Structure prediction request, 600 residues.
Amino acid sequence: MAEPTPGIQSPGGRHALVISLFLFGIFLLAWHLATLRPAFNPKGLSDEQLTTMEFNGDIIRTEEGSYIYDPKKARGLPGPWAVARKSVEEFGEAFQKKGTNDHGIAYLIRYTVLRFAAGFLSASLVAACLGVLIGLSATLYRALNPFIQVLKPISPLAWMPLLLYSVQDPTMTAILVVFMASLWPTVANTAFGVSALRRDYLQVARLLQLTWSRRLVKVVLPAAAPAIVAGLRISFGSALVAVVPAEMLLGELGVGYLTWIEWNNLDIAGVIFAILVVGGVGVLMDLGFTRLARFVTYAE
Amino acid sequence: MAFLSVEQVAKYFPLSEAASAAGRQATFCVFRDVDVRIAKGEFVTVIGHSGCGKSTLLNIIAGFEEASSGGVILDGKEVTEPGLDRMVVFQSFALMPWLSAFDNVRLAVRAARPAWSKAEVAQHTQRYIDMMGLNGAERKKPVFLSGGMRQRVGLARAFAVTPKVLLLDEPFAQIDALTRGVIQEELVRMWTAMRNTVFMVTHDVDEAILLSDRIALMTNGPEARLAECIEVDIPRPRSREAMIDTPQYARLRNYILHFLMQGAHHLPERNGLGAMNGGGPLGVASPGRPLPRRRSAAVP
Prediction:
């Protein structure tokens, strides 16, 4: 407890932070330089070509009579400034709904988080129950293991056509894809945690003649909690990975779909912005999960 | 009639299939012909080398393992499974790491006294926490407690249930030598106050002499036997300091150490098992008389 936790407070943490910021600065600079465009050079182009380019909107004529690239028309990869401008613009209208497919970023984050939560939480509940059952009975473990082994490596997205066909509702399908993505790691880890319980704990439970339900609640589940949380954590990551393509493929509004909308708009700055939002949402949800996990784990 | 009687208990383990296929003996005998009679309120210790099967014997009395032949009768009833009338204090402490010291004890009290209200359970728990000198540590998780403190929790848990028999399985083996002495004296104090019936296994000679009314010497396995049972005639209340100056202590200690160092061989029938079984249920070979010379040539 007295031991300082590595973080921003400790000197090591401060050094790490400085290095992180430094690397980030280098990255931004490199990005900026790599996407820098030279000024338009009309040399070697005939007046006719220049007129066509101006007509197409690639270049504009300045008041002095020379030509420059049209800053409104994007070409190549956008630089950090373009993405920053886009971000400011998007966050500025975060709470606006401009049309059926054009909701503000706050709404999109909300849709994704809710969709994710519905799939992940229901899967966690089912997986934990299934895992405990499997873990408690060696026979059941052996009987169900082949099914789990076959089902586990299937990409959750592979279920999508079948799910879409059977539930006939894209909203539900997206949730079920997240569900499938978060099911197996938790099942496997819970079963392992429950079956690998230390013998001591079970002996004490037998000595105290705890009833089956009390033994489950007072001994088995708390003892297996770290393994279950480890499983949930893997599930969490895999569900987070699945939710983006599920939104894209199903056209469900959310931060994942935002990347696709911006791609359809050929707004590459928007695509990069959407990617960053996906990362940010992932980090925030993971932080929340870590808080939650701290309650149920114990040190041995 | 003895309060706790271990009658003609033997334990065999099956050997590998390869050995039995080769026509050799299919089982491995840990010990056999083990008879122990313990009166109510008596403290009996079995001492022997590691691997002689003394912990297995304790596990049979606890009900964790089944005897291959013979049986254990406690207060007129045969032991078939673990129960609250036989609390075990484990060498590994076996505390639930996710529960505080207080909650570890309370879990046992609640199991033993299902009719009690929460307040009564808490009060009873607190009494035993205080008795074991755990004040101030009761809210801590076991991981933040020293080995000595952890075993105090283990002892408090066992005493709080007020079992018919306390089974101590090398309870101080994992505690550093200095702390061990303190806790041993506390156990003496506790036992003097409560007068529980105790069955302990250990390989620590001093510990056995300090705590026990009688000490049973177990020969080395395989096919271990209880060689003899000696009475500790040092008056109580005992303390280590007063005890080490008594002539009885030196004699007992020498006798037991000689037994252990000479390889804990099986004794000839008249001194060992014969004396034990022939001398009634509490068969005693008193070291107060001149000790019988044992010859290692007497190995059967």
User: Anything to note?
Assistant: Strands of chain A lie at 59-61, 67-69, 97-99, 102-103.
